[in-house]
Structure formats: structure tokens, C-alpha cells
Amino acid sequence: MKRNRVILCVSLVLLSFAATGCRLDSLQVSNRRLRKSNDRLIAENNRLESELSSNRTRPAATPNATLPQDSGVTTVSANIPTTPSTRSSRLASARDLLLEDSVQVDEVQQGLRITIDDKVFFAPGEVRLSRSGTRILDKVGAMISSSYPGHTVRVDGHTDDTPVRKVRALYPTNWELSTARACTVVRYLVENGNVNPGRVFPAGFAYYRPVASGGSANSQKKNRRVEITILNEGG
After folding, report:
1. Which of 62, 171, 179, 180 could connect to 127 by a Cys-Cys bridge, CB 3.0–4.6 Å?
2. pLDDT at residue number 117
3. 106 phi and psi, to 5 degrees?
4. Max alpha carbon distance in the chain (Å)?
5. How far apart are CA 171 and CA 145, in angstroms?
6. What are phi and psi of 45, to 5 degrees?
7. Alpha helix segments (H runs only) across 148-204
8. Which of 98, 104, 173 is closest to 139 using CA atoms?
9. Per-residue DSSP letters for the chain?
């Protein structure tokens, strides 16, 4: 009887160890599966973080970004005429507004150019605006501030090749004279024409950009001029 009890106890202990071993094997398998799943999640998280970081550093596409040639879509900057009819309408409106014998309005590659004889603005060797000059600039300023507020405006002063004499103390060469006249026009447009001072600038070219050749009085007259160009660009 005592022997049977011993055998029973030993059997129960062995069964207990066997059951424990089975549970350990099962736990080890589950643990391996969890580690594999965790590794996959970590790898996926790293991939997503890498993509997010790449998107943050990638330059944002601009509205005028170039599209593939076969996309069939053409993008243009705002405020730039897109059709011949639009350019023609813009030119006609400016000519109607600036209807003057001494004012010429043209559509050029850079934008809308207004050319004015210098005698309308200035007496010989002077940089003070005449009454007729201020009247024209009032119209130009009103047109720019109302129809082209986002455009940059360049004011160019040009002279003929006659050397400066009477006002040499103030303007040693035609460089200084042409630039001073351009600055006078810019200042008037800003102070009286409500033109954005951050979008208008002067330039002086002396006699190095003539529109007429030769030394005749008519050629010299054409070369003495002020050009106001409303450039083809938006703000």
C-alpha cells in the first residue's frame, strides 16, 4: 500500500513538471511571435517617420511650377497678359488715358512702356518737373495704383550726347543728370500718385541707350526722354 502511494506521488510530480514544461514551451512560442510582431511595428514606424521627415524638408510646389510637357496644361504668372486680345485691350486703355502728343505707349517684352519727351518734364539742365509734366504723372500714377498695384515700375532717364555745361557743378555728367530726373519722377509718383514705394525704382542711362542715331536736332530730341515701364510681374 505504502509503495503504491509513493508511486502515485511520483506520478503526480512528473505530470506537474510535464504540464509546466508544456506551458513554458507555449509561452516561449508566444513570446517569439510577439517579438516578431513588435519588430515589424518598429520597422513600419521608422519608415513612416522617415517619409514624414522627407515631406517636411521637401520644397513646397509653387503655383507656377513647370508641369510635364505632356500634361496639356500651361501655367502663367498672375497679372501677366495671357492673350493678344488682353494685351491689346491693356494697351488701348493706357493710350486712351494718356492721350498726349508727347506721350507714346507701347507693349514691349518687359511690360507696358510709357515714353515721354523730356521737354514735357524738364527745362534744359533742370530736374524740376514742369506743370505739364505733373499733369501727365498724375494720370500715370492713378493708372498704376488702380490697375497695376502689384507690378514693379522702372523709371529710366535718358539724355542726348551733349555734354553737361551750365549745371556741371550739380551734375558733372549726363549720368547724374539722367538719374536725377528719374528720381524726380519716382518721388512724384510715390508722393502724389499713391504708387507703392517698394515697387518703383529709378535708373539713369545718360546717352548710352539712344533710340535714334545721328547728331541731327530731331535725333537728339528723340533720345532725350523719360521711360516708365510697368513690368510684367505680380506681387
Report:
1. 180
2. 86
3. -135, 150
4. 146
5. 32
6. -65, -40
7. 174-193
8. 98
9. -HHHHHHHHHHHHHHHHHHHHHHHHHHHHHHHHHHHHHHHHHHHHHHHHHHHHHHHHSPPPPTTPPPPGGG------TTS--SHHHHHHHHHHHHHHT--TTEEEEE-SSEEEEEEEHHHH--TT--SPPHHHHHHHHHHHHHHHHH-TTS-EEEEEE--SPPP-TTTTT-SSHHHHHHHHHHHHHHHHHHHH---GGGEEEEE-TTSS-SS-SSSHHHHHHHSEEEEEEES---
> How far is 224 from 120, CA to CA, in rounded Å?
10
First and final C-alpha spacing in the chain: 107
| 8 Å CB contact between 73 and 64 | no
- Distances 33 to 25, 83, 85, 103, 142 between C-alpha atoms, Å: 13, 67, 72, 86, 77
Can you tell me which residue has the cell 514551451?
25
Per-residue pLDDT of 147-157, as tens digits, reads 999 999 999 99
Sign of CA dihedral 173, 176, 178, 184: negative
The mean pLDDT value for 31-57 works out to 57
- Predicted local confidence at residue 55, as pLDDT: 52
Query: What pLDDT digit, counting tens, does each position of 95-120 carry?
Result: 777 766 678 889 999 999 999 988 88
d(CA 114, CA 227): 6
